Amino acid sequence: MAALNFRLERFSTPIGQLLLVSDEQQQVRALDWHDYEERMHLLMRRQYKGLALALRETSAVSPAARILQAYFEGDLGGIENIQVALGGTDFQRQVWLALRSIPAGQVLSYRDFAMRLGRPAATRAVGLANGANPVSIVLPCHRVIGSNASLTGYGGGLHRKRWLLEHENAIPALEAVPQTASLPGF
Fold it and tell me: What pTM value is reported for the model?
């Protein structure tokens, strides 16, 4: 069985400890919150079926971690430069990479995002792929919202989605809109 060797960094942010998984070429493979570490491992196993995954914890700070720290300090544009390497299906990768087309400070509904992808009848599939995004923040799934402008489903919790959108100045028009607790990704 082939093996993939990854590095695991842990660092603090204003909304919790972040877990950053990168490969030997310093491409980000996964990014998740400490309280969702088990889910991160599950998503990685699904993406890299048939491969052994070896995660080695490191205290060395990667370029991606530096960019993410700058993001949390207000430099919103730097995350666009973080290199990622993704498993998953072709469709999932298409959805995940298209998330970068949503600029900081803007949001897009799941329906409009599906239309942008040229798959207007696939809103639910786009939502499911978005919910399985292995590299949150870098591939900004938090910028996708419900069609009624509600803050729906975010793997790291709606409180983090709200914080990220407020941090990016995308939320002022949404403040009066109630959050919903629908299924993740919708």
Answer: 0.87
